[in-house]
Amino acid sequence: xxxxxxxxxxxxxxxxxxxxxxxxxxxxxxxxxxxxxxxxxxxxxxxxxxxxxxxxxxxxxxxxxxxxxxxxxxxxxxxxxxxxxxxxxxxxxxxxxxxxxxxxxxxxxxxxxxxxxxxxxxxxxxxxxxxxxxxxxxxxxxxxxxxxxxxxxxxxxxxxxxxxxxxxxxxxxxxxxxxxxxxxxxxxxxxxxxxxxxxxxxxxxxxxxxxxxxxxxxxxx
Length: 221
Known about the structure:
Layout: H1 6-26, H2 32-40, H3 55-65, E1 77-82, H4 85-92, H5 97-105, E2 108-115, H6 122-125, H7 139-163, E3 167-171, H8 176-183, E4 189-198, H9 214-217
Antiparallel strand pairs: 1-2, 2-4, 3-4
Helix pairs in contact: 2-7, 3-7
């Protein structure tokens, strides 16, 4: 553990505070177009154009994703980018029949997974104090924390991909047990959900489904 202390800590805090102030002065909010792109008018996609997604853009998506907040900076999400024919055939073993063609046609399918042994990395990720005793020997707490925060990172990942001009289509119609056996056997990783990534063929879309109004699902306390 190598957290700064003394003058170095004060300088680090001052720098962080200055960066946030500068960011807020530079950008008050996203434009309506940007919000439309990443959420408001974004759609889940099921068909894909034959345009490859480079490893470089996948790296850029990750570099954005990794900056999203997680509790104690645990960062439990792990990503497997399935691009090869061999990889897709392995992944297809886990899919419900209706999802196989969607996955096979996508340039990339990301397995969004999480590491239940995330806490072993806390001396690096959260160097202020040793939080490993909160998790060591507590598998249920590790599972809950990893799943919750890994799911958050999966959502960050989808927004990051859209922000770079790509389309996504998350899928849950598959067997987690088969994915885990095929890709994560002998490890502390578990699959959460799948996400196709690429440039969508919008001709496969249907109308956008209804959403709840604020008054129906929100309240004040």
